[in-house]
Hints:
Elements: E1 14-18, E2 21-25, E3 32-37, H1 44-55, H2 57-62, E4 65-71, H3 75-85, E5 91-93, H4 98-102, E6 106-111, E7 114-119, E8 122-126, E9 132-136, H5 144-150
Parallel strand pairs: 3-4, 4-5
Antiparallel strand pairs: 1-2, 1-5, 3-8, 6-7, 8-9
EC number: 1.11.1.24
Family: Belongs to the peroxiredoxin family. BCP/PrxQ subfamily.
Protein name: thioredoxin-dependent peroxiredoxin
Amino acid sequence: MSSVISAGDAAPKVHLETTGGKVSIPSDSGRGLILFFYPKDNTPGCTNEAKDFTALKDEFDKKGFDIIGISRDSLASHEKFIAKQEIGFPLATDEDGSACEAFGVWKEKNMYGRKFMGIERSTFAIGADGMIIESWRKVRVKGHAEQVLSVL
């Protein structure tokens, strides 16, 4: 299990396949990156979170930040999710869980007394220099995208 990643730390290096092609994190694009981990495509909380980030995409662009959502769903699932919900940025697949492990978001969860492993909804703002600007754990969706934008 990885250690907790927080502001001031270097972002873990991972390579992912997204609906827009392959990406490396941290990015070498000269832009910052908002990386949000979510549990599952087409579920209510995840849909609302993705739509909230889509609604603010232009504002993130103006501040020099790209957005990527990550779950363990397949690229095919992501493509359907993007089309159905009109998501305005790429989604990355982490089917092997390597990015979840690297960022420390693969956690034991408990729902209705049943314990299972899953993604802890988390967001990381990564500067163009590859350093973590801020991290959010156990995210509550309502108002979260606005909160992330406000710290940039």
